[in-house]
Design goal:
Length: about 280
């Protein structure tokens, strides 16, 4: 089983048993598998950050709100490629979408720069995901509308509620600049900035946060050789993980490494912001 994620900032994930208050923002934490004291109130109420449930899309020619250097997440299924601009995800964090028979949720946490895509069918039941307003180690906790279980984005599993310990089906996605995406996917579709929510997507909600040394919600430090906001390529193969500091990678150069018995080649293009890996 090969699983790969690309995350922007290093934050440790620790899942242990803990208990304290039974509820937070209306969510039942009685069976939480993470310490309740470490589940933080992010500020917005439940659904205060509104997920996009009925996304509409534009052709590349119709898009007039993106700059060449803007980042997008990209999902491809059944020959259809869609771009989800980070400037929109900053405001919504979740887009519940569907391509053909694949129902999926595009999720993004602005506080740790992690973007991941998950199948919205859980044990055959299709659901939608929303933003709980809670955080664990500065990462968004999602909840599913069907059972209101809490899910850790980075741990890819439920950490409280009826579906506790169930895993999410992780779907591949890409990160790159808008300029690079539209040159690669000329017939692609782009998330519209007209989606039923009154938001100014020209406004950068987290301006300066990525480059500052400050974090809104402190996280435990388990590694000292890299800064807490160091951008990395994170790769997980057969439950073994490695991280590669983007600042140390020479643009366009390929690096060879081993994870377990798998040989890995990693590269990063600084201009397009495309990260690539090949596993043998």
């Amino acid at each position: 089983m090969l699983r790969v994620w690309i995350i922007s900032l290093i934050f440790s994930i620790c899942v242990v048993t803990g208990s304290s208050k039974p509820t937070r923002k209306g969510f039942d934490l009685g069976n939480a598998t993470i310490p309740i004291k470490d589940i933080k109130d992010g500020g917005p109420r439940k659904d205060g950050i509104p997920a996009i449930d009925n996304p509409s899309f534009l052709s590349i020619a119709e898009v007039d709100y993106l700059k060449a250097e803007d980042q997008v997440m990209s999902v491809t299924h059944d020959g259809i490629s869609r771009a989800y601009p980070i400037r929109i995800l900053d405001h919504h964090e979740i887009v519940n979408d569907k391509i053909g028979d694949l129902a999926f949720a595009v999720t993004y946490c602005p506080l740790c720069g992690s973007g991941m895509v998950f199948n919205r069918k859980i044990k055959g039941e299709e659901t939608t995901f929303r933003v709980s307003g809670l955080l664990y180690q500065s990462d968004v906790l999602l909840y599913d509308r069907a059972t209101e279980s809490l899910w850790s984005q980075l741990a890819t599993k439920s950490v409280a509620g009826p579906r506790v310990d169930e895993l999410l089906d992780w779907i591949p996605c890409e990160f790159m600049t808008w300029s690079s995406w539209k040159s690669r996917y000329e017939d692609g579709e782009v998330l519209s900035n007209k989606n039923g929510h009154r938001r100014n997507y020209d406004n950068t909600l987290y301006r300066g946060y990525e480059t500052s040394d400050r974090v809104y919600f402190p996280v435990p430090l388990y590694r000292e050789e890299l800064g807490i906001k160091t951008k990395v390529i994170g790769i997980v193969i057969d439950e073994q993980a490695s991280a590669y500091d983007l600042a140390s990678l020479i643009s366009g150069r390929q690096y060879t490494d081993n994870i377990g018995d798998r040989k890995l080649q990693v590269s990063y293009d600084r201009e397009s912001q495309i990260k690539r890996f090949i596993s043998n």
